[in-house]
Amino acid sequence: MKIKTLLIANRGEIACRIARTARASGITPVGIHSQADANALHVREIGKSVCIGGGPASESYLKIDAVIAAAQSVGADAIHPGYGFLAENPDFARAVEAAGMIFMGPTPETLERFGDKASAKEAAVAASVPVISGAEGARSDPEQIAEEVRQMGLPVLLKAVGGGGGRGQRLVTDETTLVEDIEGALREAKSTFGSEGLLLERFLPEARHVEVQIAGDGKGHVVHLFERDCTLQRRHQKVIEEAPAWGLPRTLLDDIARDAVRLGETLDYRGLGTVEFLVAGDEYFFLEVNPRIQVEHPVTEAITGLDLVALHLRIAEGAGLGLVQEDLAINGHAVEARLYAEDPAMQFAPSTGTLTTLSLPSGLRIDSGVEEGDAVTPYYDPMIAKLIVHAPDRETALARLATALDHVAVEGVETNRAFLTALARNHEFERMQVHTRWIDGRLDELTQAPGLTRPDLWKATAAILFVTQSRSDTNANPWTNRDAFTGWRLGLGGDAMEAGQRVTLTDSDEVSEELRVSPVKPGARYTVYSENGEALTLSAREITPGRWRLNEGDTVHLIEARLHAGVIELGTPEGRLVFRPAAPLAFAGGDAAADRAVTSPLTGMIVEIKVSDGQSVAEGDVVAVMESMKLEISIRAAAAGIASHISVSNGDMVDRGQVIAEILPSEE
């Protein structure tokens, strides 16, 4: 059956990715969205989307009836569930087929078999695939579990039978906490997965995580698309994935792949799936099956040259695989890093907010479900993007990934960018001397942000841009005084630092510093003084739009600069850096409080007047918001009182130093 219209029952980057291949295959993609996702990128990119409920996933993306109704309303022939949400739900698969549509995934029976870890382990045993030793079947009686754990000997891993993606696992290492660990694991299994059943397995302390991508036509023909290594994990959650698995014997990997294929063949596997294993020394053990497309599928696509979504569509249409095992070969090495909106300083808690800045590097594959200006909400997985690098060898791939991560800039939320960069450059990881719990033992080391080689240079550059780019017409610069740029309209005397324009810059680590940009001599030379009195003299010229040439003595630096949304973004040899500048009056106080005239700190346009004549204001209240050099700048009251003599309106252009309002003393 030829699919004409495909409903994508997902969101974010995977929905965008499926839609692109569907459209390229001549299939019309249609999306779904929650009320919270009404303006999301996947809605904009797919072009047609149906709202199915409220923001929480339980009110939208997990509602089977709402998804089926949406598919029927657009005349969909098939539904692709992506990953997560309903992708592994056998009831959903049955509902799709009962409604006369194609479910892009395994049969409901296969989903049931692999959705329960106990039955999945039984299937592996039946297919003669090695499994980790432990108690047979699932257990839910705390006393029985405690007794069997004691018989097995510690450490023991407790795994919820309904768990997946690294969730629902608890390691027992101390008998004094055994009862507490068991009760906690049972509660978590019940609340998260709806079942109290636990598997008891021997714990492998220093194993690697290797998974095999399989594809089956549903009629017994199954192939593997080689393996991926997902050993770098934080609390069982994958962080960086790569293909193929480097540093392991190919004979061992071929054995693992053959077992994965055999398991698929015994169940007439249909569609895409991943069979996961733990590798310890020269032994390997079945872990679980993910019967869906994986987050990390792009690295497999990179080394095989296949489009896995296109292959999935072909299988769903009944056209078979169209390939045999001998057709497949490994080309080079690929690595993927997951960029998340999360705060490493807060135990990687999700970070929500609006992406005021989102700059991602060029020259590599990036799968993303958000753009600059989009919001990261508390409802869903906080992934920003996946960065995928393909190179001839692993060393080159890791080096390119590290460089790419250097040139990621995100503002508005916290991210794990520095953490990923530290991993990409870690010597133990480069030598693959890691295991699945390796990160957890080195979090402090890996989350310490590396310092810049030249922070003084980049801060000085940002300060220069701030005070000089208020208008493209340099003759309109209010600091120009014939041949010299003084900071004062009268005379050139006095201390150079005091005569300079004051700028406060805050970097991505929330560290603020006040700098002063001194007089400018002919040739666009600037001297920037830091808080400790050190000076740096530069000349700065824009050679093409957005690209600047900096001269520091005999040294030339070429950088990119973007000024927008309240930040200055620099593309430097040390990576992409972001600074939030504050105009001189933004931190007014002390002596400035006596000055009740509210003046414009730069030349620009008034975006919004925030007060009206006669309104009471407190010191520090925003009087007006202006836009200058693509930045929005809040102009604040330097003293408390009554707003008066407001002389500008929204949309007016003002010069630096122009009085826009007065703050009169309050009558008490």
TrEMBL record:
Cofactor field: biotin
Sections of the chain in a coiled coil: none
An example molecular function term from Gene Ontology annotations: ATP binding
Oxidoreductase as UniProt keyword: no
InterPro entries from the UniProt entry: ATP-grasp, BC-like_N, Biotin_carboxylase_complex, Biotin_carboxylation_dom, Biotin_COase_C, Biotin_lipoyl, CPAse_ATP-bd, PreATP-grasp_dom_sf
Ranges of residues in domain ATP-grasp: 121-317
Key words of the record: ATP-binding, Biotin, Ligase, Nucleotide-binding
PANTHER family per the UniProt record, alphabetical: CARBOXYLASE:PYRUVATE/ACETYL-COA/PROPIONYL-COA CARBOXYLASE, METHYLCROTONOYL-COA CARBOXYLASE SUBUNIT ALPHA, MITOCHONDRIAL-RELATED
Protein name: Biotin carboxylase
Source organism per UniProt: Marinibacterium profundimaris
